[in-house]
Amino acid sequence: MAYDAMLSDLRGLYERSWDSFGMPVLELRADDLLTLVTRLRGEFGFSLFLDVTAIDYPERSPRFDVVYHFYSRSRNGRIRLKVQVPEERPAVPSLTELYGSARFMEREAHDMYGIEFTGNDDLRPILLYEGFVGHPLRKDYPMDMEQPIVTYRK
Amino acid sequence: MEHPPPVRSFLERTADPDNVVLNIGPSHPATHGTIQIVAELDGEVVKRADVHCGYLHRGFEKEAEHHTYHKVIPYTDRLNYCSALNNNFAYADAVERLLGIAITPRCRVLRTLLCEYNRIADHMTCIAASVMEMGAMTAFLYMMTVRDYIFEHLNHLTGARLTYSYVRIGGLARDLPDGWLERLEEVLRFTERYLERIHGLLDRNRIFIDRTRNVAVMTAEHALNWGFTGPTLRSTGLAMDLRKDAPYLAYADLDFEVPVGIKGDNYDRYYVRMREIDESIAMVRQCARMLPGGAVSVDDPRVTLPEKERVYGELEALVTHFKLIMEGIRVPAGETYVAHEGPNGELGFYLVSDGGVTPYKLHVRSPSFVHMGGMHTLLEGYQVADIVPTFGSMNMVGGECDR
Predict the structure, then answer these.
(1) CATH label, A4-118, candidates 3.20.20.140, 3.30.460.80, 3.30.110.70, 3.40.50.720
(2) ipTM
(3) Contact status of B52 with chain A (Cβ, < 8 Å)
């Protein structure tokens, strides 16, 4: 594979890796995230932070996967990172210091799954509103859930 | 009882007591859907800006988890509703990749053709709206005329003007109607004639240049840092285009250029879009020339509905039809991230399947949303009057941004 050299360079920073339709996937611990992403950005040209989201596995422990996608212009390839976080403390370090685009995308993942991004000082609701109860993309949030009525606001 | 505002703005207190806070939107004709910009002004200059989106949020990703793979298609239409076909095809590509389906050669070229055709309409809409807000009414009407011809033409093919739902997993809803390609050439020629007029009206127009040149300038590094893709990124001079870098559909067989800007200001974003329309027209023509014959849908009973005559006449076809409609497609467990070059930028579908009949998770990496995350950097330091042209040049589409 074209990215084997990169993976062996990064050995120790991730727990396991596999291939997903030609895209390398690395599973790592939350503590290693900043170090790994800093190296990806500095040494391997992953200058574009594409996306962050989460997946909810209610029966599994730890419950959430936080999924990142990056694009490298120099390697013309993408990489996916996965961090498992528990329900009690779903926290990962924020990437806002490395990428400006992390600001909004982390806010969205915070809205939808309640993932805490330590270091992102602006986790106000973005697609939802102040006073919204719960995290709608969690699997235990029912489709027909009704929100409390927000009365007239000044 | 105190109720918090829908969004807390960080501009409740201004940095300088003399500064004024100005609110634009969410219900404002220049906000293309619904977006709110809260700006702190020092005189006419924007000091800080806070961009809020979410007013058009309707839970696309949650809905997708409760619908079969085919039933998600109409929802994808409503993401970027100016170019619904691009969303359709990107979504179908993600599902087909998990299923391991290779679409037919005719479908591949036809999808490429329609992607580019819809891209013309999308760029037209973007430019039309943003120049209209600067007062260029004639250019607006010209472009809307062209766009309407394209929509009417697509209506002939798909039965809808905006929300086409034309894709099917493994193919397309139907083949081209008679005379569609002849009319296509007419529309393209008409488009070219009007493009000439629009160039004549805008390119060297003093008012237009004064409003757009050197406004909201950015470097390529800045653009990458804030996640900008598509024409917004290319306006900075970086020729990054998924159609070239990671060719999907039939793009590898097409001959086209990637237009780039010089310095990443509003004028460059206008011009890159105009040049991309030229390239798209050329690509549509190439596709129409190389369009192979054959079926538009794969012959795979897992995904493709049997023809109606067979459903009424054969038991096996009836059962297949019933199973596909009542249960839906079973997609093998797995996950994939498929990125297409949408008219606004990288449109990504991150699809996770657990082997069931609905997506376990479907996340859209929408370019508009990411662009809004970095837009305040382009507003700050410029005039109040520049907010609307800058916002227009980013081509935010509410449906895609808020999902």
Answers:
(1) 3.30.460.80
(2) 0.89
(3) yes
